[in-house]
Write a structure and sequence with these properties.
Length: about 1250
């Protein structure tokens, strides 16, 4: 195909429904540049148009013109262009210009229009702008021009109808392409329309042949350049895409001048223009629509087909023929007849219902006719006004102010929809939270104050508005809270983080304030020595705040106060925090003090000018060898202002720097000081080493060069020897070699050798001494050592030196142990005696010694036995306090006493923990002599002497008193050391029993109370009680044990006496039991009876029957019947043992109520009445008409069913009926709300 000069994109869309903007063709010009080798195609988007692309992440982006969009093409072909859903694109080439046709994909596409019920699917991204512009922006397509492959601005835009593709484009696209998209032939077309359609297709083919379109005539020269037709101005549509309306001839027809058309004019084109103009005039001649059935939010619009203009005098053949059915577009405006219009309907019908209108609003409506690719002028606008209706739902009320017991609500008026709002209905749930709302206010005001509320409570409100047309829907439910009391002072603020110029503080919400209460906090700060006192630093609802712009290393005082709508609390306690110091500045450049030595120099520096608010803690000196300063080594860290850098190499260059540190951090590095050390003689050599085994009179030595040559090569070595009994030295070798043989030595003697090196600067220092012994031998066996006992824990061991065999003894090794086979070295040295300490008295030990010299180790001497003398006992290590149980078992039990009242045997208390202390201890070591006694020291009292025991009870002590106790052991040799002092305390005396009372009683329960405390106490109270009750066997059983002061005894028998006693106890122990208390339960009353049954005998009498009860523990049961007439009081009608009673002398027109109770006849002539039964009612009997034939019977009773009394409903039955009626009404109301309000 080769490189093309440009490509033009044409798109054909299907008309959408009236509620969406109509799709229109979009003009995009694409140019394939030959200059760029990366195959970049520019898509030119004209002003007022939009171009949609798909990005790499799958999202769609809409670009509005004017703009040029670069698109990458790997092979020079057309890049993929976004196609709306329901469409398909096809590329055709015509005269060197590539066009992209976007056609509908539906096989049942009808050019005549679409039904409003069948629309193409919406675009995938509703938030993006439209893919193609509005119809008002579409340039007219009556003339078809072929694109010119010449320049960018010389390409003419080709436009196709956004609703129905014109038939004269059928040959521009291949036949296969059109058949692929299902373009069916028009079945409902008369012969006249078919002829017009064929004539149009023929003219299009001839025009394409004249203009050289297509790729068939390849060798023909391109036509001369011509200017494109002027595009009409855009139209401003309600959806923001278009502009103002234009005249029909400028919107749909472009009349190109003779200069623009050039040589392409011919008679057939003129004939095509006439037919198009005639069809356009027919579409523009449409009458204004009629509006009927106007409601608040909708109206019905009717219109008629356009009529032919009367002024036209055309023949039958020249009359415009509609090749397709007409479509109509209804648009409305609310800004006047000349304002902006918005499309509301598009279809083929002659009537439409406009929905979604605003109540009480003036509207202007007009209609436009459409056929094929032509759109007629709009008709004259018709004005109408929608009706008024109920107001819109108001917004939820808001809280303007509030206290603990009131809320002030305000609201804004909603849209009244044409009728003034008269009243507002404010409802609330009364704080119950059940979702049931009651009316709180009804009136015209826009605010209301609700009073008598509970503090810190939630209340739900909703609002409705009412005008003359009705009541609006309720607003959303809003939850409001009442305020709480003034909050308590919060805890003092805490320091979370600290900086140089800031402090981050946090505090806690007052624990007594509920979560619903809005608590605000005021953080106050006082600067030290400022004189201004506390100043507020923060006011808000946060629980933390960072105070900034502070001074470094300064003290600040803080306190916080809480407040709400009720007031402000007292401030918290004052706390003091200190800001951190800043890091100091760098020290001054170091300087040299004194003369630089070959291996050291002294440097000094000045403190930094700024210490950052804190004292300098130390200075750090770093040293680097060489002139580059690649690696630095720390050589000093301290508080001094000078330092001697030693251990340097002579003749080397060094760099040094210093920095300081304080509490605020590390300072920057100072400037670098460079130092050069002078050259010196060589450094010390390593001591010479012995080579081989030394002989009796000579030794062979070897050495190495020194590590430091002093800046000059070593040329000579000197070896000196020191005699065994003299400190004088003499030179035995001098030369450049690294080894030598020294002769003339004495055997078995130790000599010292030293080495020094020399260079051109002279001899260096001598090396360390190397001692060499000639011909040494191991020492002989030592004699047995002697032992002397200085004390039971100390022994002195001494020995003599053996012959050394030519080499002096350098070391003695002493072994010591408790057994002969397990001795260990306890001394190693040159001494002839050693003192062994820390020994145990009355213990056997073994010892031996050996001598060591340079030649080896001599044999051990014979082992010697040594026994340490006896001593006083050791100190007592631990003292323990006996538990109460062990204390009771420690004393021997005496005869037990029997409790006369309860019959329970209690062992006597041998020792009381209030006056006694039971102690035990671990027996110490007796050190060879048996312990005879122990001495217990109590401090103030006389010490207590006890026998050889490890337990003892100290008696006759004061209660609740602390004592310091220590113990020492004694044997025949004396008294040992005291133990550590242990502090022990006696317990207080146990409490006395409280007084027991019976506060409430019944036939089955007794409520007992004791003491003066509350009924319920915490479980951690020290004073507790133990309540017991005597059973049938005369034993006391436990009922309650705890800190409470009341207890309810249940499941008792009636008319029975019970015996109780109580005991108090605490940490000191259990107190004595109280004297016994006896309480008696009363008799139980009879059980309630069921409702009596009534049976009317005649107009003046009835029979009342009730159930019977059995005797209660031998006591007979009687009954009491009461009767009440009308609203009078109940009077006794019967009392006796019968279970029925005949009531006579009743009034015919009165209501009677009966109830009955049981009475227990006790043996002591007292009566116990039970509760009354439910009440039954006897209503008056209605008179019934008795037939005459029925009254003439013989002695038989007439109207048996009519004579029986109709039994009235009981109270439970009436309540059940009321409940059922209420439930039915609630279900009906819910159904009505669901059906009429929600749906």
């Amino acid at each position: 195909m080769g490189a093309v000069s440009g490509m033009e994109v044409l798109m054909i869309s299907v008309f959408e429904d009236g509620h969406r903007q109509s799709p229109l063709p979009e003009e995009c010009r694409l140019y394939d540049s030959e200059f760029y080798k990366s195959e970049v195609i520019l898509v030119q988007v004209n002003p007022g148009e939009a171009f949609t692309i798909r990005r790499e992440d799958g999202q769609y982006q809409c670009i509005t013109g004017p703009a040029q969009v670069p698109m990458m093409s790997p092979n020079g072909s057309v890049p993929p262009i976004y196609v709306p859903p329901g469409y398909v694109s096809q590329i055709i080439e015509e005269n060197g210009v590539r066009r992209v046709l976007v056609l509908p994909q539906q096989p049942d596409f009808h050019p005549g229009g679409h039904s409003p019920l069948h629309h193409p699917p919406p675009p995938p991204h509703a938030h993006l702008p439209a893919f193609i512009p509005h119809p008002a922006m579409m340039p007219p397509p009556p003339h078809l021009y072929t694109g010119i492959a010449g320049g960018v601005g010389d390409l003419s835009s080709q436009y196709i109808s956004q609703y129905h593709p014109a038939q004269f484009f059928s040959d521009q696209v291949s036949t296969d392409s059109l058949s692929q998209h299902g373009r069916p032939s028009f079945v409902h077309r008369d012969d006249r329309a078919s002829k017009a359609h064929e004539r149009l297709q023929k003219k299009v083919k001839e025009r394409q042949g004249v203009g050289g379109g297509g790729g068939q005539v390849k060798d023909s020269p391109p036509p001369s350049p011509r200017k494109s037709c002027n595009s009409p101005p855009t139209v401003d549509i309600q959806n923001g895409i278009g502009g103002k309306a234009l005249d029909a001839e400028h919107r749909h027809v472009v009349a190109c001048s003779d200069k623009q058309t050039g040589k392409e004019k011919n008679g057939e084109l003129k004939e095509l223009d006439k037919e198009t103009q005639a069809l356009l005039a027919l579409l523009s001649n449409i009458t204004k629509p009629e509006v009927s059935d106007i409601q608040a939010r909708e109206a019905v619009v009717n219109w008629s087909d356009p009529t032919r203009p009367e002024s036209e005098n055309t023949t039958t053949e020249e009359e415009p023929v509609l090749p397709e059915p007409l479509s109509y577009e209804i648009s409305i405006s609310i800004t006047g007849k000349d304002g902006k219009y918005q499309s509301k309907y598009s279809g083929e019908g002659l009537s439409a219902t406009l929905e979604g209108l605003r109540p009480a609003t003036d509207y202007h409506v007009r209609v436009q006719a459409m056929c094929t690719s032509l759109l007629g002028s709009p008709s004259e606008a018709v004005s109408f006004t929608t009706l008024s209706c109920e107001p819109d739902p108001p917004g939820p009320p808001r809280k303007s102010s509030g206290t603990k017991n009131s809320l002030t609500l305000q609201w804004k008026a909603p849209c009244d929809n044409g009728s003034k709002i008269k009243n507002y209905n404010l409802q609330w749930d009364e704080g119950k939270g059940t979702g049931v709302f009651e009316q709180c206010y009804y009136g015209p005001q826009k605010q209301y104050r609700v009073t008598k509320l509970s503090p810190a409570s939630r209340y739900s409100f909703r609002l409705a508005a009412k005008n003359d047309m009705g009541v609006s829907e309720f607003s959303e439910v809003v939850d409001l809270f009442t305020s709480c009391s003034v909050p308590l002072p919060p805890f003092p603020p805490e320091l979370e983080m600290a900086g140089v110029t800031w402090l981050c503080l946090k505090w806690q919400r007052p624990s007594s304030s509920p979560k619903e209460d809005d608590i605000y906090y005021i953080l106050e700060m006082e600067e030290e020595d400022s004189g201004y006192g506390f100043q507020p630093s923060y006011d808000g609802d946060e629980l933390s705040f960072t105070v900034r712009n502070l001074h470094r290393s300064s003290k600040y005082k803080f306190r916080v106060a809480a407040y709400n709508s009720e007031g402000k609390s007292n401030p918290s306690q004052v706390v003091e925090f200190i800001t951190k110091p800043d890091r100091p500045s760098c020290p001054c450049r170091p300087v040299i003090r004194g003369r630089v030595q070959p291996d050291s120099f002294k440097m000094a520096w000045e403190p930094p000018k700024e210490n950052g608010g804190a004292e300098i803690t130390k200075y750090v000196v770093e040293l680097s060898e060489g002139v580059t300063g690649a690696s630095w080594e720390l050589v000093y860290s301290g508080s001094a202002l000078e330092h001697v850098c030693g251990g340097l190499k002579p003749g080397c260059s060094y760099r040094t720097r210093v920095y300081c540190m304080s509490e605020g951090g590390q300072s920057p590095l100072s400037e670098t000081l460079q130092v050069q050390t002078p050259a010196v003689p060589p450094g010390p050599c390593q001591p010479p080493r012995l080579v081989g085994k030394p002989k009796a009179r000579e030794v062979q030595l070897r050495w190495g060069p020194p590590h430091i040559d002093g800046g000059s090569p070593v040329t000579c070595f000197s070896v000196e020897v020191i005699g065994p009994q003299s400190d004088e030295s003499r030179e035995v070798y001098q030369g450049p070699e690294l080894d030598c043989t020294v002769g003339g030595l004495s055997p078995g003697r130790t000599y010292g050798f030293r080495l020094k090196a020399a260079n051109k600067a002279g001899f260096g220092p001598l090396s360390e001494r190397c001692e060499v012994t000639t011909g040494p031998g191991a020492p002989e066996q030592c004699k047995a050592p002697s032992t002397t006992c200085k004390s039971p824990s100390c022994v002195v061991v001494s020995w003599e030196a053996p012959p050394c065999n030519g080499a002096p003894v350098t070391e003695f090794r002493l072994e010591w142990g408790a057994a002969e086979g397990s001795m260990q070295v306890c001394y190693s040295g040159a001494g002839l005696s050693h003192e062994m300490k820390g020994l145990l008295p009355a213990t056997n030990y073994f010892c031996r010694v050996q001598a060591v010299n340079v030649a080896g180790v001599g044999p051990y001497s014979e082992a010697v036995l040594c026994q340490t003398p006896c001593s006083v006992p050791a100190a007592v290590s631990n003292i323990y306090l006996l538990k109460e149980s062990e204390l009771q078992r420690y004393g021997s039990p005496v005869d037990a006493d029997e409790d006369e009242e309860g019959g329970v045997i209690h062992p006597p208390l041998a020792f009381s923990p209030s006056t006694c202390l039971g102690i035990c201890w671990d027996a110490p070591c007796d050190h060879g002599s048996e312990i005879t006694s122990y001495l217990i020291d109590l401090g103030e009292k006389q010490p207590i002497v006890v026998g050889p025991v490890t337990k003892y009870v100290i008696q006759n002590l004061q209660p609740d008193t602390s004592y310091r106790i220590r113990i020492q052991a004694q044997n025949s040799l004396g008294t040992g050391a005291f133990s550590h002092t242990f502090k022990l305390k006696t317990k207080p005396l146990p409490p006395q029993p409280p007084r027991l009372e019976c506060t409430a009683f019944s036939h089955q329960t007794l409520r007992l109370k004791w003491g003066d405390g509350p009924a319920k106490t915490a479980a951690s109270d020290t004073l507790q009680s133990h309540l017991q009750m005597e059973d049938k066997n005369g034993r006391f059983i436990s009922l309650y044990k705890g800190p409470c002061h009341t207890h309810k005894v249940q499941r008792l028998n009636e008319s029975t006496s019970y015996t109780f006693r109580i005991q108090a106890f605490n940490e000191a122990g259990e107190g004595p039991f109280s004297s016994v208390y006896t309480f008696t339960t009363p008799r139980s009353p009879p059980a309630p009876l069921k409702a009596p049954k009534l049976e009317r005998l005649d107009d003046n009498s009835c029979e009342v029957t009730w159930e019977s009860l059995s005797h209660m523990k031998g006591d007979p049961i009687s009954y009491s019947l009461q009767c009440m007439m009308g609203n009078t009081e109940f009077k006794q009608a019967y009392k006796g043992s019968a279970t029925s009673f005949l009531v006579q002398n009743l009034q015919a027109n009165s209501d009677y109520r009966f109830r009955v109770c049981a009475i227990r006849q006790c043996q002591d002539a007292t009566e116990l009445s039970g509760p009354y039964s439910p009440t039954v009612t006897l209503t008056p009997q209605r008179s019934e008409t008795v037939q005459s034939g029925g009254a003439a019977g013989s002695g038989s009773r007439t109207g048996t069913e009519s004579n029986r009394t109709r039994q009235s409903l009981t109270d439970e039955q009436c309540a059940f009926l009321l409940l059922m009626v209420f439930a039915v009404i609630a279900i009906l109301i819910a159904f009505v709300i669901q059906y009429f309000v929600i749906k």
